[in-house]
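Hey team,

Sharing the Site-determining protein run so nobody has to redo it. Sequence (293 residues) first:
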Amino acid sequence: MDQAEQLRNIIKRQNQPDGMSRVITVTSGKGGVGKSNVSVNLAINLSRQGKRVVILDADFGLANVEVMLGIRPKYNMADLMFRGRELQDIITKGPENIGFISGGSGIQELTNVTKSQITYLTQKLYELDSLADIIIIDTGAGITDSVLEFVTASSEVLLVATPEPTSITDAYALLKILNRKLEFSSNQTAIKMLANRVDSKEAGKQLYTKLNLVVERFLTIKMEFLGSIPQDSNVTRAVMQQKPYSILYPNAPSSRAVYEIANILCDNVSEKTQPSVGIAGLFSNLLRIKSKR
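Structure output:
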């Protein structure tokens, strides 16, 4: 029995469907589209609506989320998996009471864990399911093995794109690969697109329509439109001050837009295309994908 099968069996024995957190994986086809900024400010606004939110930074080697939150975590996922730290040790408190977990190298080392470590990790991840209503996974930028593994393992994906031609092209390239991978996967993924740095709501919808026409013609996956965030100079100012723009400039166009998007996500929580498998279920899928490589 391989490690992925061991983890799936553990999850089946400990299945707690009513206690599963909702996991939203935020990704993009290329860097520089504001993905991490979306993750951070979406988390802020979901927390303001009474949700317990944790961000898991899966962008290995970079610290974009840490910089935007203005925090420096002492521990990361590897400390939980291999160095005996408890889950509470690796959760750093951020603004508006959101939690933050640095992925570090821990997620990349999943394929090296022993059976006992799998059991321990699964138990701890179930604990996280009970501590958070929503877990936002901020993936790395671009089309890497790590990004593809996370996206393929997820039940809910938020794809961030901008009007730049390269962003649209790379977003489609990501969707094309995801479409191929999901054809051979038992996992079903709900994909939502967010148009970032657009001139208007109409421009955001046009961006979605343009991309979705190609998706519907050539791919079998489905993609829905979540909303758009306008081009806003306050976003750059907030990054320079290492603070979320939703906190520094709550009345800015970008802040109002991400507030609306958070509302939409909260309103359709009971209408998601696919039920959440929780963070432990996602890692079970992730390990299964890794074991097939």
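The domain at 3-10+21-291 is CATH 3.40.50.300 (Rossmann fold).

Ping me if you want the raw files.
A.
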